[in-house]
Design brief:
alpha+beta; eight-stranded antiparallel beta sheet; eight-stranded antiparallel beta barrel; 30 strands; about 30% helix
Length: about 650
Amino acid sequence: MASASPSVQSDRPGKTPSGATFTSPAGWNAADKPALIELAAPEKDLRVALVDVGKAADASAAAAAAWKVWAPDKARAPKLVTARAPRNGWEDRAVVDYETSPNEKRVMYAIAYRAGTNWTVAIVDGAEATAEKRLAAIGLVTQSLRPAGYSRESFAGRTAHSMDAARIEQLKAFVAQSMKDLGIPGASFSLTTREKTIYSTGLGVRLLGDAAPVDGDSQFLIASNTKGMATLLLSKLVDEGKLRWDEPVTQAYPPFQLGSPATTQKVLIRHLVCACTGLPRKDMQVILNSDPKAAASDAFAQLALTEPTSGFGEVFQYNNLMAAAAGYVGGHLVHPEMGLDEAFYRAMDEKVFGPLGMTATTFDFDRAMKNDWARPHADQINAQPAPILDAGMKLNFAFTRYAGAGGAWSTANDLIKYVRFELNEGKLDNGTQYVSAKNLLQRRVANVPVGEDRTYGMGLQTDSDYGVAVVHHGGSLAGYKSDILLIPSANIGAVILTNSDNGQSLLRPFMRRLLELLYDGKPEAAGDVAAAGVRLKAEIAKEAERVSVTPDPAAVAALASAYSNPDLGPITVTRTGNGVDFAFRTFSSAMGTRKNDDGTTSFVALDPTMLFFPLVVGSEDGKPILIARDSQHEFKFGAVK
């Protein structure tokens, strides 16, 4: 790469001075410097430095040496160093985290890689908003970084084994051990070929402290795994001539609008669930201030106030309100006589769940929680798991009212029917072509890259980083993490459902372990899970060191009795002896305090549902305020008299 080269317009290969290879993202400026390559995001406020360090005592020492070479004036002492499993020719990998104060709005970490005796370090430093927006590009760099001469593992051209009883038993043992490593109380998984479900089981318990077991019929919230089924509804409507993928959304549903007329006119039906429009996340509004009785109207009202923060097709930005809107538009076309919420529920029953025989899949909380349902869990401040039946389920109920984005409940036995339908490219179990292969497969067409050899379509992601296509999507709500996946070349599909936040660290290793068994891959999945189990506990323990569970008395005394923000709604402050509780519209939590390095104080949530969620204490015009942030938005809560 030429020194200080102009911004590139497509991904291109690069090398560090030592010969380590990587991919430079489209639009990023790449500059050669002594012993390093510096990549600058188009916004120019975020950089990734790839530094060849050579010999070092360990990952922490390697990171320190890298900072000394690249930007010694910016270097900080490590906050936490956590190991990752060896991968891609690197014999050691570790992430070095650094303390940043909330008001810095800064992301700062390093990843140290060792091959032989030599270390290469990737430093990520810059604006938090840009880092969130450019997360896929950062992932492209770090995922593609490999030592000189290393050849990637590929299953391309291999014939997959069948998932016989012995391999299924190995997969089951892997899930069971992973649950122990990660502290997951319960999980359920199932496997299918194009012909039938070949295995389904439950492991562990529905609720900690209760012996009732999870089984293949246990209900779990499947969160964003709803998206693929919502876009399947759109596929059916395209088949029926009620919709076109390239139709402007305003033709299908005239009230639809974004933050400006020009932006609104660009949006086609296919853009609603592509994560490619440039619209940022607006989940905080849903999580903290949604009205369960007016989710549809709120989704469209929020979108009308939203403008893209990047260009169409430029970067992967996940927006749940757009996905919810896709479902509402589809439901409206099927039942224009109904309200948007009810029309979507009815349309999904009639056009998706019913025809696929998915009798246990529902948007009805009362029905799902009547009998066999897995309760959600999350880690407490002591890093031990606990049920989150109050705050967690209140938050989940609020979010799932935006149903097309992630509102469904299902079971391993039921959701696998949808996976089989995807494997069969629109054919029902009786052989009937219910949805055309053309329109079903449109949802897998790449719209935007997510990382190295990973792309997002419409509610489905395709990963080809192992040389074979894996079509999948994850789901994440409080205490529920899940994944659906299909490997067409191997004639296999799977569902994995968990009732713990820590289940997130099982999803991709579950995919990897299945590939290992199918294609005799290197045994990497178990190492990933083991490292994640150690890391999760270490991260909580390190953050807990900064938090006072009994909040600072002076900070509590200075609080107003109530606060409000136009986007996130009210906070009611209740003092409880030496403690204090914050009640948002959707849930409440006891609060601790955290002293930040810049001298500010944050109130942080102690409820496991949103453990350590911070609100920074501040003042404006001499009046107290609390500041909440996501990566691209700042919300100031003003005191209410």
